[in-house]
Amino acid sequence: MTDDELDRWRTVADDPADRAVAGFFETAGHHQPAALVGELVGHLRLPPEDLVPSIAEFLHTAAKLPSWADHHRMARGQSFFSQFGLHQFTALYLASLPSAYAAAKGVHVLWLTARLETDAERRLNETAQFLMDVTEPGAFDPGGAAIDRILHVRLMHAAVRWLIDHDPRVNRPADADPGAAPAAPTWAASWGRPVNQEDLAGTMLTFTTVVFDAFRRGGVEFVEADAEDYFELWRVIGSLLGVADGILPADLAAGRALQDQIFRRQHAPSVVGSDLTATLLGLAKSRMPRPLAALAPALVRRYIGNDVADMISVPPSGPARFVLAVMIAFTRVFTRARESDPFPGWLAEHIGRRLLQGVLEADRKGERVPFAIPDRLGGLG
């Protein structure tokens, strides 16, 4: 993939989902953009026969696994997630999200659709619940939740694009510095389309290749073939999310190469990325045990490297790096022991998922984490 090709992918969004959402808004009437998006949220919960035709047609057409999907590999990929559930969520919070925040252009979508402190915890819970849903054994079988959840997120992306394109309070200059603090909600044409194909592919990689990098740097020992299966599971998820065949990596090796290229192109210092990172680390203090929360900045730096961490203003590691070294050594010994004793892996796969789901439900006081399309843009009333 050349830089010129990736430049073109930045101008491409997701035509099927965009047409479906545009059809809904045309049918819904002439309300304010935020009100229309709010109506779409409720509309997606209707039974199929009551959906606006454009949404119903999209869900019918898009709710199919790609022809190349391998159910056996997908099941093994789901097992890989379950065996390393705690490490997966640690990597999500302290590697995947910071890596996404370092993409100076694409991160503006996150800033536009999140009100930082007021929305950050909900968005984290949504992402965690999404991971639990798509990695649940049998989730892609008839009646499973995975495809419905994935298509819901895909329509969320289309709604965000529509909102950025149509809300009159959004500035849309030809060009703008993505690293500067936005004085008002802004999306510049030079940044490409909101939630474009390069950013979609890059996000998919933050949940796969970035996680594997974090595992290695954090002392988590795993089998490469299992990682290949987990990557294959995410190729299916990515395809259902609207990642085009032309940019979807063919395998894990291609994914690693694409990660290097996208991150080289997109990672840069930005005020928005730093603000989101500060909010994330603040949440870590309130959600994690105090000793682990104190290690959070050091873990971020370990997982994504000092150069990228500096771009998003991660605090220095300080003395925590010495404690971290001991924790990494312990993790390496514990996860390596799985090769000779299958019990730790069995325990993690059969009990760890239930514990993680319990944590999510505790955050919601026993309720399932809902998925909601943002009904307004950051900074707007």
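^ that was protein a. below is b, sequence first then the tokens
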Amino acid sequence: MLNAGKAVKVSIYVSEGSTHHGASTYSTILDFLFFRGIAGATVFKGIAGFGADHHLHATSLIDISDRLPLKIEFIETPEKVDEVLGKLQEMVGSGMIEVQETTIVKAPQSPTPTPAPSTSVKIEGKAQMMRIFIGESDRWQGKPLYEALVSALRAHDLAGVTVHRGILGYGAHRRVHKDKPLHLSRDGSILLSVIDTEEKLQSFLPIIDGMVIEGLVVLSDVDIIKYSHRTLETDEGGSQAEPAKS
């Protein structure tokens, strides 16, 4: 929670077209800041500018450039900034981060508290699986709930999540939901599966409580036999891309 007094202002400069793990860098950073409990952040879009490459980028009615500068700005306590700065440096790629000391003259009203994030750990041996059952039409702050949950899980450094769409089933209301040819149901079932340590899943449960109004969440013990991933290559925009598949 921000109070009047000394604070830190952070400005992050990226290109509009840059990506991080397949998503736009600025939206990924904004999701990360939101789900890490940062008091507030704003994205500003430039209409002209140049960067380290000394190439001038500008908008016009004929040619809308995707390399225009964007600035993401937020103000937080020094302790909170220290928590997120390392991850931001990784996410920003070839962009720039500026940190300035500032003074809060008037503090905002009390925000909704967010649980402190847990640090990432290596998974091996015993772990837990969390399954989240929701509806395809469920929404959270204007976007599909399952997409918002994926963003929240990623921002909290959960090891990974897979979203499954049900083709047949029923729930608490005992209405049968079924996929039919030439008919795209918007009331189907969605399952999110997450495997991580018990500690990290338990720390994420309060986030689920605030996002899932109607649904089912279950936890079960699992044994991890093998958990590995490929090394990702850095693309032109400073993000990391998966190697091409044959």
